[in-house]
Amino acid sequence: MSQKRSENQFSEGLSPADHMSESPAQDSRSHITESDHRNNIFPKAVSERQETFKAGKLAAIIVAVSLVLGVTLGIVVVKMKVFARNDNISSAVYQSGDLLLIPTAKAKAPAPSATAVSSEATFYCDNTKETVAFDYGYEPYSYGDYILLSGDSGALGGYSGYNVVSYQKSTGAYNYVCFGAEVIVYPPLVISVGRRLVKEGDCEADNEYDYVYEYYSGTTNKQLTPEVYSGTLGKYRITVELAFDSVAPRVVGTLFYNRNGSDNRMYVYGDSSDDGSLVLLAYDPKFHDKPNETFFLNMNGSVLSGYWEKPRRDRLDVNLSLNR
Predict the structure, then answer these.
(1) Of 112, 182, 117, whose CA–CA distance to 148 is shortest?
(2) For 292-314, how does the pLDDT look when each residue is reduced to its tens digit (9 = 90+)?
């Protein structure tokens, strides 16, 4: 039978020792003396236990958060190791434990159209870090690993002209080649015709210009320095400029009859062989839009010799020497 005691038992002569010895099975609160009550020891004990519990709970939370961060961040950032990486492929693969990360690589530029395009087109050129715009489309010219694109650039420098961009199939790269008031593309080479205003007329048609002839390669995307030859075509004195590509066995250039002056040039282009032979096609742009003359030449050191042919004309000998 349990015993119940009222709080006034402390005033009936029972000491704390009597409570302890009389009811050892009583609630543990009976072990607290009157002085403990007077000094608020019981509330302090409860408060300390609560603070200890809170501190333990906080520590557990911190440990848990640390573990989560260790898994999601620590392993990835601190322990990440390169598993494989190749800048020439579309993605790079990294390994961290069992985690594989595949970052997105820069998309490869699409190839140009294989046929003429009549709408506006733009291309980012790797060598100039600029975007070239063909305002009214472009014409593609293919040779081996290269496609040259030529198109109207709109107004530039006071007149319309043409930009040329080279696309390399094996790398997918676009590179800027040249600009000209007129361009003649014999892929992968380009004849660029520039003009300088000498005298302004009453209208644009009456302006007088000097012409500048330059030669460019779509394989190296650089200007070529031509070799200049002088000599005879039959009884006529001529001067010929020829620019050879360092990658493709092709050649472009111009020629003029000395009596007509260097501003009245014919366009020349053709193929070269390892044995030194050249087959060059030529035409005068003032009268024709495609070749109607042919040179069959052989290169022997600094000398070009052979013959010239034109429909319904007699064959004429050609002898040229490299200008020093």
Answers:
(1) 112
(2) 999 999 999 999 999 999 999 99
pLDDT tens, residue by residue, 16-72: 444 444 444 444 444 444 544 444 444 444 455 555 555 566 656 665 555 555 544
Residue type, 20: M
What is the C-alpha separation between 274 and 299, in angstroms, rounded? 10
What's the pTM?
A: 0.66
